[in-house]
Amino acid sequence: MQHTILGVLWWAGGALGIVLSRNNQRTVVPSVIIILTGWAMSDHAQALMISTRVHAIFGYTLMLAGVTRIIEVSFIVPKYTPEVPAVQDDHSEHTLNDGSNSAGGAQAVKTFRHLPPYLLVAAGLLFMSATDEELQTVHGAGMDHVTYILIMFSLSFIIYSLIVSLINLYSASGRNAPNQDTGNGAIELEETTNKWYARVPNTPNDPHIIGDDDD
């Protein structure tokens, strides 16, 4: 019955979140849903004690992720490019700004914004590792819940490091490279001024007429 009610909770809360997030408005409803789900999982009794403890830590991690997400949505304003009436169409009020701010407050904001996604990665790994088959095997091997949970958090650090590394690799290579070579037969034939947005060239092409070509 508890799993069914969780499904109803996600359906009802998801509908409210969609309504409140219209016109690119930020909402805390998804964070509240995550917190309620974490609370339910933290008090979800299992047959094995190790399974109960793993579910509890999974729930606490979800609740912490929801709280940090509420703080981010409520107090950290995302930075967008200013709406400039330029001739080209490479500006948008919903495009992330390329400018970097070296102020201490901005750096602290960037550091804090890594916390909610990492906690969600850790919670997801704990959730996938809390099946009855896995925990029965761990219990049979004589491993306690603390060791098992620390192993899962170690794996979450590795997975999140891989995610951040791939994002940085994408943003610093290929067409997003800061000093790309556009000559001598390079793949990138045209340099873009904004790594988040590139205008589609409007060069007219000669129409192709179906029929026999006159030689």
TrEMBL record:
Domain Protein YTP1-like C-terminal as annotated: residue spans: 1-170
Annotated transmembrane regions: 27-45, 148-170
InterPro entries, sorted: YTP1_C (IPR018827)
UniProt KW keywords: Membrane, Signal, Transmembrane, Transmembrane helix
Stretches assigned to coiled coil: none
Signal peptide: 1-17
Keyword Calcium included in the entry's annotation: no
PANTHER family per the UniProt record, alphabetical: INTEGRAL MEMBRANE PROTEIN (AFU_ORTHOLOGUE AFUA_6G12730)-RELATED, PROTEIN YTP1
Name of the protein in its database record: Protein YTP1-like C-terminal domain-containing protein
UniProt source species: Cerrena zonata
Lineage: Eukaryota, Fungi, Dikarya, Basidiomycota, Agaricomycotina
